[in-house]
Amino acid sequence: MEKKQFQAESKRLLEMMVHSIYSQKEIFLRELISNASDAIDKIYYKALTDDSISFNKDDYYIRIEPNKDKRTLTVKDTGIGMTKEELEENLGTIAKSGSLAFKNEVEMKDGQEIIGQFGVGFYSSFMVADKVTVYTRPLHGEEGYKWESDGEDGYTIEPHNKEDVGTEIIIQLKENADEENYDEFLEEHRLQSIIKKYSDFIRYPIKMDITEKRPKEDNEEELVDVTEEQTVNSMVPIWRKNKQELTDADYEAFYQEKHFGFDQPLSHLHISVDGMVRFQSILYIPEQLPFDYYSKEFEKGLELYSNSVLIMDKCADLLPDYFSFVKGIVDSEDLSLNISREILQQDRQVKLIAKNIEKKIKNHLQSLLKNDREKYEKFYDAFGRQIKFGVYSDFGANKDKLKDLLLFYSSSENKLVSLKEYVERMPEDQEHIYYATGESHERIEKLPQTEMVKDKGYEILYFTDEVDEFAIKMLMSYEEKEFKSVSSGDLNLEDEESKKEAEKQKEEHKDLLTEMKEILGDKVKDVRLSTRLKSHPVCLSAEGDVSIEMEKVLKQMPD
Ligand code: ADP
Ligand code: MG
């Protein structure tokens, strides 16, 4: 038996690794399973170019075996195994990745599927282990070896008669201490859920003996424990499947499985991009507003996978705020990760993906509006405010992108209409897009200011949401038609004759107007004769750009 020290600096690196790189202990299982999957992949890639190797997918699997008596957890694979040299190089040297070298060697586009690259994942097992033992036998006829380490004092290597090609890693779990309990890694359910969380889409079966209560054969009433080997992971990620093979029910099932919401998704998109940056994505537009949507607790973001292994639960950078309601996943083989594979190294790829996704969501909503109005209005009912905020926020930087997603209630159509629809219907002599603000449609209906505009045969958009007018002020115009509040002083809808008549009247009643102004004092800025009233004796109107409704909102805001 040979005893060797870890390569220089490795000991310190190991310390650091165990104590600070990973945020959660459970990650060690993700790392060992990723390595096992890589090891099987390597046989697969070799078989592609070497006729003497056959690859029958059914012979390859990963097996997880907890042993409560010995307090060990074993991760077994039928992968390529390691020679003595490889054991020393790859497990004896921290930050040495045999997988990265392999990837560079095969130089195949397919080789990209291999997960390993940093050469540290294996050591994460020392977060939970007092001792790690590796039995391995390489593919090419050589003998097997046993490698063992307590993580501090170097490692030992000795020949060992392993029957099958592959690797078996035995983790001797640490003793439980006051605050730390390692027994969870012996519990079937806990292990199952860790595997599901991080490794559900590993392409090879991850098998485990699962014990379940089942009715007895001769007596259905009685339940007995039945232990059976089961495959825990779903293997093929739904986003890698062909769209044509998937039904709406499949997408809905995935939405439920991922707990994206308690509702049904209103709509989904399945994206596969093979451009500057490669990625697959499944996105959902929920049906209902999440209960915490307008609270501080709500976090936007998409699940981010690198090569089908979960990297981040909620990657916020993938979604702009105005699409924060979108749920889903992104999987990319082009991400550069940091060493813990928990954070992204650089955000160039993420930015590219985010840009692409934003465009896809926008186009999807646009086509929903065009082709499935009912669904779009349902969406708008739940998330329309967010779109309006989007128009208004960031000093209007995104207004052009979003303006065609806006809907407002229309006086003449008695339903929601888009700005495009409004403008297309405009009579030739109409110069502006008219709107009126108020608490409700009924209230707005009764506004004296709407009468004259309606009489002219012009459509009015009813703004009942506080953000409506702010959004529109940001837009300023749509297809060169300016927005105009029906309450603004200068509607200019009168013909020449009535204008002259108005001038005359103003002269005649000058004294009355002055007196009224004196009585009302500071409450109004001015008292004027109006030509646009029909059935109402008087109306309030705003000067300049800010409507009365908007003024109310502005007054409520903190200075
Ligand atoms: P990485 O996976 O990033 O390369 P690891 O520390 O997880 O780094 O593993 C180091 C190396 O050890 C791998 O690159 C691989 O060459 C080798 N290795 C680890 N686990 C196995 C295994 N189960 N079968 C074969 N080789 C393995
Ligand atoms: Mg690894």
TrEMBL record:
Single GO molecular function: ATP-dependent protein folding chaperone
Histidine kinase/HSP90-like ATPase domain ranges (all copies): 24-177
Region (Disordered): 487-509
UniProt xrefs under NCBIfam families: PRK05218.1 (NF003555)
Compositional bias ranges of the Basic and acidic residues kind: 497-509
Region A, annotated ranges: 1-341
Swiss-Prot/TrEMBL keywords: ATP-binding, Chaperone, Cytoplasm, Nucleotide-binding, Stress response
Gene Ontology annotations for the cellular component aspect, listed alphabetically: cytoplasm
Gene transcribed to yield this protein: htpG
Positions contributing to ATP binding: 31, 35, 77, 82, 90, 96-98, 117-122, 167, 341
Subcellular location per the Swiss-Prot or TrEMBL entry: Cytoplasm
Stored InterPro entries: HATPase_C_sf (IPR036890), HATPase_dom (IPR003594), Heat_shock_protein_90_CS (IPR019805), HSP90_C (IPR037196), Hsp90_fam (IPR001404), Hsp90_N (IPR020575), Ribosomal_Su5_D2-typ_SF (IPR020568)
PROSITE patterns associated with the record: HSP90
Family according to the record: Belongs to the heat shock protein 90 family.
Designated name of the protein: Chaperone protein HtpG
